[in-house]
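Lab notes, practical 5.
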Amino acid sequence: VQLVESGGGLVQPGGSLRLSCAASGFTFSSYAMSWYRQAPGKDRELIATIDTAGGRTHYADSMKGRFTISRDNAKNTVYLQMNSLKPEDTAVYYCYARISSLSRQFDYWGQGTQVTVSS
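Output from the prediction step:
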């Protein structure tokens, strides 16, 4: 299983970024996918989760309104569109999947992509 995030970078306050997470090594369309983030000195926090077909999404209350999670099962990719970015959105953003194998569940994380919101 491999999860590879991309799309992070430096953006000015009020700007937008679209993160991508390319998945491989498992049947992508069979698993829900999530985005998390971790700011310096803080715990990792959930941003959003999307179901297998992309029809249902869940957002952490603090993330509603500015973040949109989506997926393309044909490309084995999950996205996070981030708008109206604020300095407090500065964090490392991670892709996450819980994969079932041999009656057990395993948690997989990408390496993360840095997002810095600053003028």
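Observations recorded by the TA: The chain has no helices and eleven strands. The first strand starts at residue 2 and ends at 6.
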